[in-house]
Amino acid sequence: MSGTRPERVTIVSRLFRPEPGAAAYRLGTLADELRERDYDVRVLTTVPPSGTRIEDDGLDVRRWPVLRDAGGNVRGYVQYLSYDIPLFFRLLCTRSDLVVVEPPTTTGVVSRIACALRRTPYMHYSGDVVSTAAEGIGVNRTVVRILKALERWVLTGARRTLAVSDGVRSGVVALGAPERRVTVVGVGIDTERFRVTEVDSPASGRKLVYGGTMSEIHGAEVFVRAFGRVAERYPDATLLMIGQGVDVPALTELADRVAPGQVEFRPPQPPDVLSREFATASAALASVKPGAGYDFAFATKALASLSAGAPVIYSGVGPMAGIIRDNDLGWAVGYDEEAVAGAMEKALADVPGPGRRAELSAWVECNHSLRTVAANAVDVVDEVVRGG
After folding, report:
1. Among 387, 358, 328, 314, which residue's Cα sits nearest to residue 121?
2. Using CB atoms within 10 A as the burial measure, which of 120, 140, 162, 185 is most buried?
3. Nearest CA to 207 among 313, 355, 303, 288?
4. In the predicted model, is pLDDT for residue 292 greater than 80?
């Protein structure tokens, strides 16, 4: 790179590591790759939930306190705005050669206005199509129309749009993003943080682990109901639900009815803790509920558990189902509690050994490492910064 100073890329996201979530891991690895290529990187994000351990990795991360819902999520318009309004002024006070913007749409709107005032180009990192998802979960039609208009405005103003999959690419192009400016960079998981972990004293009994958000689009209810079908036949089996989301209270109540004493709920855990749980699991669980606006979504929680050595029981729609089926990575079934229960029985009857776990982890490293995804994204950054 030429010039007397390194180019600065500012990453804008309400979620960033160590807070768990696909976007947080994806953007963290992007920041690492940018720094590897001698960019000056700054991250404008939020203060994570109380008790979260923040590691000092030398990255310039500026955290702002925000409102969170009862589950600890920055989710909902009031919570979004508690981040977005201060963000406007933070961006105005930040020198950047390029800004990388993560949804939601309100953040995109604020970023486009601030970047226009600073005459700074921005890129939009589309992990999904927000307005399509809102429509799928039954948001008011008027609100959806407004969301579509705003999301279109954000996408058309972006110098480039990064899409995580072909499905997302099709969605943003249909919404109005110029096709020539949309690049698919892929989906991956941080294989250094999620890896096969040696456990000194493996837990006794059988265990199924769900690790991730529990909201309308995931439909984790199917796993609790299915486990209720098999729990009596496997009295030593445990269903461990790790994460947060709007569905947690209802799922807790359901679990007490269908499998009392055999379902445990825990708050979000760091990757090292999750990896240890997956290392002793009969299988991990992941799902995308049909018709919730995310039929094209790539369930990255499945990649995290595979990377840590657990085969996956996948329920519902999305490209992950075919990948699991085609590569013998577990069981891909429909969004049906009977089918899920059948897969659970098979998993509980045959706990994977060390060789199988190593094989699953190696497959993820070869095919879905976030390092490769980040390298693809930084190639696009290079083009933009150099005037491409």
Report:
1. 387
2. 162
3. 313
4. no
Residue with tokens 């949309």: 182
pLDDT the model gives residue 54: 80
85-89 contacts, C-beta under 8 A, 24 or more apart: 85/110, 87/12, 87/44, 87/111, 87/114, 88/113, 88/114
Q: In this structure, are 141 and 279 located in the same domain? A: no
CB 233 within 8 A of CB 329: no
pLDDT tens per residue across span 353-384: 999 999 999 999 999 999 999 999 999 999 99
Q: What is the pTM of this model?
A: 0.81
Tokens of 143: 């609100």
**DSSP characters over 231-265:** TTT-TTEEEEEE---TTHHHHHHHHHHHSTTSEEE
Helix, strand, or coil here: 56? coil
Q: Residue 74: which pLDDT band, with cuts at 50, 70 and 90?
A: confident
CB atoms within 10 A of CB 133: 23
Domain co-membership, 183 together with 212: no
Which of 280, 330, 335 lies closest to 308 in space, CA to CA? 280
State how beta strands 8-12 and 40-46 pair.
Answer: parallel
pLDDT over 70 for what percent of the chain? 96
Structure tokens at 28: 């963290």
Residue 205 confidence class, pLDDT cut points 50, 70, 90: low
Q: How confident is the model at residue 2 (pLDDT cuts 50, 70, 90)?
A: very low
Query: Residue 96's pLDDT is what?
Result: 96
What's CA 99's distance to the chain center, in Å? 20
The encoded tokens of residue 69 equal: 């819902």
Total domain count for the chain?
2
Which pair of structure tokens corresponds to residue 330?
């577990």
Q: Are 176 and 61 within one domain? A: yes
Three-class secondary structure of residue 118 per DSSP: helix
| Residue 311, domain CATH | 3.40.50.2000
Range of the domain at 345: 206-367
> Where does 305-346 show beta strands of DSSP type E?
312-316, 330-333
pLDDT for res 156: 97
DSSP string, 337-356: HHHHHHHHHHHHHS---HHH
